From TrEMBL:
SMART domains: HATPase_c, HisKA, PAS. Keywords: ATP-binding, Coiled coil, Kinase, Membrane, Nucleotide-binding, Phosphoprotein, Transferase, Transmembrane, Transmembrane helix, Two-component regulatory system. It catalyses: ATP + protein L-histidine = ADP + protein N-phospho-L-histidine. CDD domains: HATPase_EvgS-ArcB-TorS-like, HisKA, PAS. The keyword Transmembrane helix applies. The chain crosses the membrane at residues 345-366. InterPro entries: HATPase_C_sf (IPR036890), HATPase_dom (IPR003594), His_kinase_dom (IPR005467), HisK_dim/P_dom (IPR003661), HisK_dim/P_sf (IPR036097), PAS (IPR000014), PAS-like_dom_sf (IPR035965), PAS_fold (IPR013767). This is histidine kinase. Its EC number is 2.7.13.3. SUPFAM superfamilies: ATPase domain of HSP90 chaperone/DNA topoisomerase II/histidine kinase, Homodimeric domain of signal transducing histidine kinase, PYP-like sensor domain (PAS domain). Residues 488-517 form a coiled coil. It is an enzyme of class 2 (transferase).
Length: 780
């Protein structure tokens, strides 16, 4: 609920409660209060009086009635003086009261009002209750202010009952003659006569003193039935109440007792046709309400009927069967069971159940309405989801531990099935290549543990047996662990895209390489022109110098001068020759015309002789050139010219990139299958990032035209091609700034029918070749 709604709810409830309060207040203010006076002849400790007042209260309590209760306690002082005193007391006490009704219980109260009524509470109607004396009843009815609820004691019925239950007993009826009206005395005597004729002995014992009554009772035979009708007096003139006599008879003497008032139940009587004091009070209360409502109410007398009532405990004690009792009898103190629950309670319970049912039906109706609405929403959202799943571009598969329950259109299309029925209730494994079954098993176990299975690539099998690349992820359904929802992606398009991407990348790479190669070529040609121009310039300058000297007849031709000029001319011719040779070889290699001629040679002496020649050549350069080998001879198939080109090229580079004081080591390691030639220098070294490219054609570490060392960048490429032709390999290691090592590995093979040519060191054999290969190195 929003704050705004909460505020309105609070506001409306406060408003309603205020309105209700105001309504109550005004009705309370407007309604007249009734003053009621209850005057009891006796006091409330007497069960009869107490029950009558309770009955009155049950109808009059509340309803704007203010009830005053006065107990006359007439038995304490039953004389005129006491009546006078009470009169004066009431007169004084209720001077300012105008009672709407006075309810007087029992006959003594009537006598009081008969005497003082004209001067006391003159304007109030008086309702007498529990009156049974016919003479009084007549008087009451003749007075317009007086009303009466008649309650006669039923001597005839109770005597009949007592006789019926205990037919052999003498019926003992002790009576205080002062307290029993002549009317009832007459009735009693009539009954006595009636039963005497029937042979039943009824003993009516008129006595006020209880002790004498008890003495009398002791003299009688034990087969006795007691019927109590009045109270008695003790020797001290104190009241001896009826209930005491009954208790004494029942408990001490085991004499069954009957009486006429329901208030005696539980004191020891078996029962009787009883006047129910509470009932009497209740009838009186209702009657009083009618009189108050209509002060001119013209019905002045109502009767309250007696009821057969019994005490369950006494019935049990005297072994009296319940079916011996008159029909409709009420049994008190019965141990409660379901059937003993009062009718009222059953009615109340029934009403409660009905109300509850109505409430439940109402709630159900409201909820059914809500459920219908929710069902409608659910149905439409289910439809939406269904459509969504059907139109999704990737396959959806629902399965229960591998048993297929549902597949969407995309899945069926991918696996080439015409409808769901073709695959429903079949195993998931049927559609996946067996190489993936183990993995699927693991993933199904994960799903049972509510673990999501991420995307993996698998091979699917279509209806026509074709294998297709798919990608699958699966997750357990949120409400039931048994179901798994798998999402299946077709990888065919993905693969095509990947291939295309790779092709593009490759093309890009090739283009880049081509561009780079083109750039290299451009650089090479600029470098080549430089390489050609430098020796050409020198040759040209020397030629010009000689020409000028000749022109001016200044031919100062010293042998050292001429030799120097010839050296320069020669070296630059060698340089150009090397360049042209290299270019021709490269062109040959590219066209596939370059062939090597394999002959069986001693590789050790071949390399050693070249090294020795170079050593001779560079002896002024202060570079130490060392040759070492583990064996002295190893005959194998090589092209000696190619090996010479290789070693000379590597040595020329080693010399070119070393300074005086450095050293170069040529080391041969002869093994069974391979010969390893290492040419190691302590020169400038090669940066790490350039190590891979130096064997590529036109590659140089320093490509600037102002570089310190001359070169075309073809040499190592040519070396590598020549080694490749021997099925060998070349590798380079370098510590930049500290030197480089070129390692050649040649397989040991021999060629048939070609005789071994022994390589003998001839000092000048390599001079020409060295001159050409070393032509870049000017300082020599
Ligand atoms: P060039 O004719 O320019 O020397 P090469 O193909 O023989 O061409 O060598 C390529 C490059 O490799 C050289 O320019 C140089 O930068 C590097 N290089 C070759 N050998 C050595 C070495 N021993 N020490 C240092 N750098 C070297």
């Amino acid at each position: 609920m929003t704050n705004k709604n909460k505020f309105w709810c609070l506001f409306i409830s406060i408003l309603l409660s205020n309105m209700l309060f105001l309504c109550n207040f005004y009705s309370f203010a407007e309604e007249k209060m009734n003053h009621i006076l209850i005057i009891n002849s006796q006091n409330m400790s007497i069960p009869y009086t107490h029950d009558v007042v309770r009955g009155i209260y049950s109808n009059l309590r509340g309803k704007n009635n203010i009830i005053h209760v006065e107990n006359m306690d007439i038995q304490i002082k039953p004389d005129h003086k006491y009546f006078d005193t009470l009169y004066n007391l009431y007169k004084y006490k209720f001077k300012n009261y105008n009672f709407d009704i006075i309810i007087a219980t029992d006959e003594d109260a009537y006598y009081f009002f008969e005497k003082y009524g004209d001067n006391l509470f003159e304007n109030s109607p008086i309702l007498f209750c529990g009156i049974n004396e016919p003479s009084i009843l007549n008087k009451i009815q003749s007075n317009k202010r007086f009303y009466v609820v008649e309650q006669s004691i039923d001597i005839e019925k109770t005597l009949n009952l007592a006789n019926k239950i205990h037919p052999n007993n003498t019926i003992f009826i002790p009576v205080d003659p002062k307290l029993l009206s002549s009317h009832y005395m007459k009735l009693l005597n009539n009954q006595k006569k009636y039963y005497k004729d029937k042979g039943v002995d009824i003993l009516i014992y008129y006595e006020s003193n209880i002790n004498k009554v008890l003495d009398k009772m002791n003299t009688l035979k034990p087969d006795l039935t007691l019927i109590t009708l009045t109270e008695f007096k003790t020797d001290n003139n104190d009241n001896y109440y009826m209930n005491n006599l009954i208790q004494f008879a029942s408990n001490k003497k085991n004499i069954p007792s009957y009486s006429f008032w329901s208030s005696m139940i539980s004191t020891g009587i078996i029962g009787g046709s009883l006047c129910d004091a509470y009932d009497l009070g209740n009838t009186s209360g209702r009657f009083a309400l009618k009189i108050m409502k209509n002060p001119k109410y013209d019905v002045h007398k109502v009767s309250n009927k007696n009821k057969y009532m019994f005490d369950y405990n006494q019935l049990t004690k005297f072994n009296i069967p319940i079916n011996n009792l008159p029909l409709g009898s009420k049994i008190k103190n019965k141990p409660s069971n379901f059937y003993s629950i009062s009718k009222d309670m059953i009615y109340a319970f029934a009403v409660y159940i009905i109300l509850l049912l109505i409430l439940v039906i109402f709630i159900l109706l409201v909820n059914i309405n809500k459920i219908k609405k929710l069902q409608k929403i659910l149905k439409s959202s289910t439809e939406d989801y269904k459509n969504l799943i059907e139109f999704l571009p990737f396959g959806i598969l629902v399965h229960d531990k591998g048993n297929i329950l549902f597949a969407n259109s995309a899945f069926l299309k991918l696996f080439r099935y015409k409808d769901l029925d073709s695959i429903r209730n079949t195993s998931l494994y049927n559609y996946i290549h067996k190489d993936f079954h183990e993995k699927i098993k693991e993933r199904l176990e994960d799903q049972q543990k509510n673990i999501y299975s991420p995307y993996i690539e698998e091979l699917g099998i279509t209806s026509d047996g074709e294998l297709i690349d798919i990608e699958v992820c699966a997750y357990p359904s949120s409400d039931d662990k048994n179901y798994t929802v798998a999402v299946v992606n077709d990888l065919i398009e993905k693969r095509k895209a990947e291939k295309l991407k790779n092709k593009i990348l490759e093309e890009e790479k090739r283009l880049k390489q081509a561009l780079e190669y083109d750039k290299l070529k451009t650089e090479f040609f600029s470098n080549l022109s430089h390489e050609l121009k430098t020796p050409l310039n020198l040759i040209f300058s020397i030629t010009q110098l000689i020409e000028s000297n000749l022109k001016n007849d200044q031919l100062v031709c010293t042998s050292s001068n001429t030799s120097h000029h010839i050296n320069i001319l020669k070296q630059n011719c060698y340089r150009m020759l090397r360049l042209v040779n290299n270019l021709i070889d490269i062109t040959k290699l590219d066209c596939g015309y370059f062939n090597i001629e394999l002959q069986n040679h001693n590789i050790v002496s071949l390399v050693e002789n070249i090294t020795l020649s170079v050593s001779e050549y560079i002896k002024n350069k202060q570079i130490s050139l060392i040759f070492d080998t583990n064996v002295e001879e190893k005959i194998m198939a090589v092209d000696p010219n190619a090996i010479e080109r290789i070693i000379l090229n590597l040595l020329s580079n080693a010399i070119k990139f070393t300074d005086s004081g450095d050293s170069i080591i040529v080391d041969l390691l002869i093994e069974e299958e391979y010969v390893t030639i290492s040419i190691k220098d302590t020169g400038i070294g090669i940066p790490k990032d350039k190590l891979k490219i130096i064997f590529d054609r036109f590659r140089q570490v320093d490509k600037s035209l102002t570089r310190n060392r001359e070169g075309s960048g073809i040499g190592l490429s040519l070396v590598k091609s020549l080694i490749d032709m021997h099925n060998g390999s070349i590798d380079v290691k370098s510590d930049y700034g500290y030197g480089s090592e070129f390692i050649i590995k040649l397989p040991v093979t021999t060629v048939d029918n070609i005789n071994k040519v022994d390589s003998v060191y001839v000092k000048d054999k390599y001079i020409e070749k060295i001159n050409i290969e070393f032509s870049d190195i000017y300082s020599i």
